[in-house]
From TrEMBL:
Database matches in Gene3D superfamilies: 2.80.10.50
A Pfam family of this chain: FGF
Organism of derivation: Mastacembelus armatus
GO terms assigned for molecular function: growth factor activity
Stated name of the protein: Fibroblast growth factor
Domain of life: Eukaryota
Family that this chain belongs to: Belongs to the heparin-binding growth factors family.
SUPFAM superfamilies reported for this sequence: Cytokine (SSF50353)
Taxonomic lineage: Eukaryota, Metazoa, Chordata, Craniata, Vertebrata
Amino acid sequence: MQTPDRCSPLVVSSRKSHCRAPTALTERFLPLRTMTDGEMFVVEDRAEDSGLLLRDYGRFTRLYCMNGGFHLQILPDGTVQGQRDDGDVHIVLKLKAVDRGVVVIQGTAAERYLAMSDEGRLYASPTVTDECYFLEKLEENHYNTYQPQKYQERNWYVALKKNGKPKLGPRTHIGQKAIFFLPRQLDDSGE
């Protein structure tokens, strides 16, 4: 397989066009190549083929909160909270990507799914509902944030307070330590 150079088209073309040589000051405003009449480009959605964006994460994960040093814990009774004990089975989670940047978070021991209600309360649902889909975003500080997809216009986030209790969605905003989570993958033995 050839390595594409700077002038190679990124998509399939019915005809090849020529790459221009750089010009003076206006180069940054011009495209690398121009399309001519009769060219046809096909852009494919390769997310499913590549396995990079839409996949079931093969390993188990813990979500470590920047605020207070807690892991996100999902209990069988529907409670969501923080737990500092690394050995607790209820902090082992499985994240499943259902779309680009959208994940469902399952507590493996509890067999429940993280959800956020219309009041901004975190809870564990026995089944996947529309409140169980979260927008996962890698922030500049290399931590992830999780926003409920259903309430994304409200700018709420999954968050844990310093005492390990869940923080209400309406009381969260970008920049708070409570909303930043670091995914910590477990090895195959579950440790």
